[in-house]
């Protein structure tokens, strides 16, 4: 009995279309590896298995009670990989190795036995960005895949729609695996630095420098005047622009998968008070409903518009790099239950300086669909719910989704 759950991300499908099927029979096997106690703590490798066609798939865990586990029969094989330049499994000095279950937490590689906790990579498993020729956002952007390159197999996990010329990401698409979300790895090491990715992105400037608070202050001073800049940039009150994840790290199961989210094409400038405020609650509620339903959710998260702030010369659009890297006016997120095509959309303002409730870009339907109202503190973001179809009319750059009914929340 195969005890591994595999995710196949065919090139013709969005990554979010992958399915995880929960086993109804009890978890069993000679080797039961707990994700939070039995895997390497420093540099977790990738866990994969070959398909009948010879390509590689990521192995996803299954639940045993409240813990996530990788369960293997005696002699069952799994592939362990440490992708990246000069990266390797520290114990074997190889980039990838086949391992078979011996017993307990002992895996056999090339005739030698190793504890599962000792199979660290020499450095973090490397992910990468892969620009494609596929157009998105009505031709304004291209699809960029974020994934892993292992033994001539490309394994995408996130698709982002990015405008290369304007250094602007319209949206990112990923999957939240609700049935096994409760067993995910909780980060044991520090967050990685953000990466530029392929050299076609952010040409002519360094996005790290553009996001630096020093540059933010200079941009606001130049566009709004010194007095207004001092009013809007207050780092001690979290009034500064963070690198707001579109596909957030906490939605992914393994450390290596979580770290894959740290590419600049998967973030947009978001005020920190909102990033750590009501938008964080939207992300938390996404995982909660996926877990409650035990379903795979297709999640699309994006941006809309360009934020304007008042200056001595009227309203001014805010961008962090000349005419590029715009600060969005709104962030939005669509959840689609892949089991029944029920959907809900969330929209958040990206302006912590509002003094009254803003005009919505689509009708607010939170209350009648049992989603919490996150509107009590405008500095944390004004969040409302919409039908996918209504939001799509306001944000035509959104991808086409199949939505047949409304996804209800759990107040």
Automatic annotation (TrEMBL):
Recite the UniProt keywords alphabetically. Answer: Endonuclease, Hydrolase, Metal-binding, Nuclease, Signal
* BP GO annotations: apoptotic DNA fragmentation
SUPFAM superfamilies listed in its UniProt record: His-Me finger endonucleases
Query: Where does the record place the catalytic residues?
Result: 245
Keyword Metal-binding recorded? yes
Family of this protein? Belongs to the DNA/RNA non-specific endonuclease family.
Record-given protein name: Double-stranded RNA degrading enzyme
């Amino acid at each position: 009995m195969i005890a591994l759950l595999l995710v196949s991300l065919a090139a013709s499908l969005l990554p979010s279309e992958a399915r995880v099927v929960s086993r109804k029979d009890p978890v069993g096997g000679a080797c039961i590896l707990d994700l939070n106690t039995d895997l390497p703590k420093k540099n977790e490798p990738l866990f994969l298995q070959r398909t009948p066609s010879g390509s590689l798939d990521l192995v996803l865990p299954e639940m045993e009670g409240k813990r996530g586990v990788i369960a293997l029969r005696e002699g069952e094989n799994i592939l362990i990989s440490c992708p990246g330049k000069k990266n390797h499994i520290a114990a074997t000095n190889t980039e990838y190795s086949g391992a078979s279950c011996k017993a307990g937490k002992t895996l056999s590689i090339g005739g030698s036995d190793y504890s599962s906790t000792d199979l660290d990579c020499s450095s973090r498993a490397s992910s990468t960005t892969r620009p494609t020729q596929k157009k998105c956002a009505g031709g304004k952007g291209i699809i960029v895949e974020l994934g892993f390159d292992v033994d001539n197999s490309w394994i995408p996990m996130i698709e982002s729609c990015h405008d290369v010329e304007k250094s602007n990401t319209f949206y990112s698409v990923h999957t939240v695996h609700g049935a096994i979300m409760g067993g995910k790895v909780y980060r044991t090491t520090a967050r990685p630095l953000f990466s530029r990715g392929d050299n076609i992105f952010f040409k002519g400037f360094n996005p790290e420098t553009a996001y630096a608070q020093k540059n933010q202050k200079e941009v606001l001073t130049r566009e709004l005047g010194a007095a207004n800049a001092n009013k809007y940039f207050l780092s001690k009150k979290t009034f500064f622009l963070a690198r707001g994840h579109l596909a957030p790290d906490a939605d992914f199961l393994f450390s290596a998968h979580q770290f894959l989210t740290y590419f600049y094409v998967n973030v947009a400038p978001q005020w920190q008070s909102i990033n750590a405020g009501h938008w964080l609650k939207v992300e938390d509620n996404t995982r909660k409903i996926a877990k409650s339903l035990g379903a795979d959710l297709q999640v699309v998260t994006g941006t809309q518009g360009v934020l304007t702030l008042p200056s001595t010369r009227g309203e001014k659009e805010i961008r962090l790099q000349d005419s590029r890297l715009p600060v969005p006016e709104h962030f939005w997120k669509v959840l689609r239950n892949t089991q029944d095509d029920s959907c809900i959309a969330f929209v958040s303002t990206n302006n912590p300086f509002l003094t009254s409730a803003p005009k919505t870009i689509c009708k607010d339907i939170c209350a009648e669909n049992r989603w919490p109202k996150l509107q009590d503190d405008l500095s944390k973001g004004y969040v409302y719910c919409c039908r996918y179809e209504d939001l799509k009319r306001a944000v035509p750059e959104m991808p086409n989704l199949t939505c047949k009914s409304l996804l209800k929340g759990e107040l």
